[in-house]
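Reviewers of the previous submission asked for a worked example of the structure-prediction workflow described in the proposal, so we include one complete record here. The input consisted solely of the amino acid sequence. No template or homolog information was supplied to the procedure at any stage.
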Amino acid sequence: MTNRYRAWISTYLSRVGDPLQQCEAATLEMQQAFPKLRRVRGTVRMLAAPDGDTSAWPHWWLVDQDEHIVDPTASQFPGPLDYFEMDEDDPIVGRCHNCGEYFTRSQACQGCCSRACATEYGSYLNSFRHTRE
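From that input alone, the workflow returned the following structure tokens.
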């Protein structure tokens, strides 16, 4: 990341304080200052979360011309991050009832992120029905 980007992020964070849930606004503002950056929507996963939660969370970030990630709100997440870019035409529509992962419209399967999760979740729900009989 260039020093210009680091300086902008530092100034931005000084102005807004806590970057929690500010990723969309921050990337819009930073892209205005640096038009060559490309905004990206997707999910981010903390690889070493202090509480052990490695769930993926909806997120916005920027990418430079060399495809390097420039994330003005990365400081809201402790530790290293794994980024996954989503297709703008396939928005996130929910969170899987089985595994808790966010999923897109094309991935959706009966309130779950995949057919495998839907099957597993269905089996889990059916286990309660059979214990009552």
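Residues 1-86 form one domain. We consider this example representative of the routine output the project will generate in years two and three.
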